[in-house]
Every structure is written in C-alpha cells, then in structure tokens.
From TrEMBL:
Residues 49-139 form the ATP-cone domain. The lineage of its organism: Bacteria, Pseudomonadati, Pseudomonadota, Betaproteobacteria, Burkholderiales. InterPro entries: ATP-cone_dom, NrdR-like_N, RNR_NrdR-like. Keywords: ATP-binding, DNA-binding, Metal-binding, Nucleotide-binding, Repressor, Transcription, Transcription regulation, Zinc, Zinc-finger. Binds 1 zinc ion. This is Transcriptional repressor NrdR. It comes from Variovorax paradoxus.
Length: 147
C-alpha cells in the first residue's frame, strides 16, 4: 500500500485487528521510507442489486431509504431499533442471496412488507396502504382480512 505521507509504494503491516462486530479489519501500517505510521480499514465490497423503479429508471439500493420508510411506518409503535436493524439486515441478506443484478421496486417493497408484518401489524398496514396505493376501501379491507 502506498504511503499517504511520502508516496512510497512499500509499507509494512505492524498490527491487525478485527472490529468487535467483525464488519471490518483495522491495520496499522508503517512506511519503510519515512517511518510514519497510518491506519487503513478493510471492508467487504458487496454489490446489492440495482432497484428498477416503476417508471423504468434505475437507482442504487439505499439501505438508508429502506430504513427511513420502515421507521415512518413504525412511528410510535412498540418496536425496538434492534428489531428494525435485524429486519433490515434480513432484507439485505435476501438481496445478496438472490444474486440478481436488478430487482424491481415492487419486489423490494414486498420484502419490506414481509418484515413489517412480522414486526408489527399496524406498521404493516401503514406501509401497505401507501405502497400499494389502494384505489378503494374494499382493497384496504381485503388487506386487513389477510392479516
């Protein structure tokens, strides 16, 4: 690895540590030319599928947007942040396990609804009512019957 101070191409790893949650590796390095030390972090580079929206446009998967929509549906509901994080992690794992390059937005919405249904029925109904854009009351009643 190139030294950020002098640009010398050779550095030595002095110390390696794995983070507590195992998400990244921290390495202390020392330049063999100027002897300065610096830290690098290694994280896995995962490729989530691109989300294909209803209008055909494409956007990178954004876990922050999914989290925000879940938080909105779960507003003032008795669900912990840890439960939300776990649900989001399951969604991300399903996306990675699918090994698809693209996913239609409606399939992503279905994954979110499935997780919300497990967490809280009221949040599920809130999300589904906006996500599915019900045309009439009967469609909404059918959703409630399905629960």
């Amino acid at each position: 690895m190139k030294c950020p101070f002098c640009g010398h191409p050779e550095t030595q790893v002095v110390e390696t540590r794995v983070s507590e949650d195992g998400d990244f590796v921290r390495r202390r390095r020392q330049c063999s030319a100027c002897d300065k030390r610096f830290t690098t972090y290694e994280r896995p580079d995962v490729n989530y599928p691109v989300v294909v929206k209803k209008d055909g446009s494409r956007a990178d998967f954004d876990a922050g947007k999914v989290r925000a929509s879940m938080m909105l549906a779960l507003r003032k509901r008795p669900v912990s942040i840890e439960q939300i994080d776990d649900a989001l992690l399951r969604i991300e794992q399903k996306l990675l396990a699918s090994a698809q390059r693209e996913i239609p937005s409606h399939k992503l919405g279905e994954l979110v609804m499935r997780e919300l249904k497990k967490l809280d029925k009221v949040a599920y109904v809130r999300f589904a009512s906006v996500y599915r854009s019900f045309e009439d009351v009967e469609e909404f009643r059918q959703l409630l019957r399905d629960i």
